[in-house]
């Protein structure tokens, strides 16, 4: 099978990084096998074929039984030719069709004899995997940019963005798409979904099926979502460092893995796509609208005095949301809508009866063609919704009092190609706010049934400005609300200032601040309202993403207009220190040490640490039952890097008292 890592098949097909003894090739590109017969091959007399079969019931008509012939006169959909004959040894070149089924094939050699056809016995070492091929022009996933292919197919090291749009944080991730057992786990996901084998060559069907299978809602898929803060029966979403452990655990136990939130779904989906050869990347949208009723607006309801009515406000704005983009042609859409497609495995809303989303063309979303399959209106709303504040009168009627058109979809980020920096791709999803093109797009979306808020209530002549703060968990801080009067008369504002601890999905857990100052502002002046926030008020209520959400609303006495302002403050968690020492060469022993000091006065209990590095270190974990306030821990592990190149060792620390603590060290390994 010429299946060794250093032989031409694996190097030509760029599959030599997979930890797998079998031959792995990409479709639409020739590979070679050597067949040794019992005597010399005579092309004019001897007739043989190489047969490939996949699935339980192989049939020629379904493309699951594929005979490949050495002669030009007789060819099937997979091309075959004799490259070289040397006595009894025939070297044959075989080219799988560029649209063939992706998966694991068995191979046989069949020879025509006077007594009928004789076949070789079944032998596992002759099984081969056929993957998608972004390097082949005829493949639906062809991506004509070598730097993008290296990043979106071959790179195992991920950087996933979170935090807030004006205070971006990053999380390192090991996609591990070449690790031992991962390819089999990805094929198991398709088997488990009972996806017809004949659909497995179509990237549109594969990605749509996988977006349903990566969450466990309704199909016992890979990951169980949990946004509650209680992760007693599994691993906290913030604790994972890579996809390998999750995929191997699912294919080994055949049970959904606990627990995930949006970036875990996106990261594991990314490993699945890259492993099968579909170019993909993880994307983060800041201020992502989760619109329950599909109407392109998020409704925030205020009572008569301008205070938020939490029981009636149903839509939520996620501080950020992660999804995937994968690259493919879209023969099912008009020309021009191929390229990057949004797929999302986080279970938010159902699509055709299952929790899944996509593939939706990014270009179609930008231009407002939300009638195109699949799920374009939902993604369009995630980046384009308006935030509408309604005032609810005592008789139950609602009147829009303020519309914020630029809050949602503030910024869309992904990792830059070839470096660990970030790349802003907001302009691929939408035209600049307020531009004529943007208006045209929203009108077009409306033709396809997306309702928009038409009213434009008059602007208030008082502005509320909230500060941009960088604060660490456990610190007291000043929060100053500035009221700016732009009118020529004095103004009096009856204000409500609310501070609550929120999950990153925008859901409040506890209100720790509520003040109702009445502020008088002289004409064309500004007044600051000072507030001191003490850590003891919010620390007990903190949830894992450590976000504080401040909302200021109020009513101007003189004019009856409503003023509003919103701000999410992301609290910074302490960092782990990761140090790597030793050899720096392949197969030479090295040492990684993780250090952490508990910065609080209270104890941290049930502390879990995890550490891994793409291509250099398998996942290692450690448990400490208690870390007293002010004390430190040091954890060291020995490892021997398996391959050369630049990579990172990344670690996380997780316990119920403190989540989202991570650290990393960059290393270069030489041969």
TrEMBL record:
Q: Could you tell me the EC number(s) of this protein?
A: 2.3.2.13
Q: What class of enzyme is it?
A: transferase
The record's listing under Pfam families reads:
Transglut_C (PF00927), Transglut_core (PF01841), Transglut_N (PF00868)
Alphabetically sorted, this entry's keywords are: Acyltransferase, Calcium, Metal-binding, Transferase
Q: Which reaction does it catalyse?
A: L-glutaminyl-[protein] + L-lysyl-[protein] = [protein]-L-lysyl-N(6)-5-L-glutamyl-[protein] + NH4(+)
Highest taxon above the source species = Eukaryota
Q: Which PANTHER family match?
A: COAGULATION FACTOR XIII A CHAIN (PTHR11590:SF42), PROTEIN-GLUTAMINE GAMMA-GLUTAMYLTRANSFERASE (PTHR11590)
Q: What is this protein called?
A: protein-glutamine gamma-glutamyltransferase
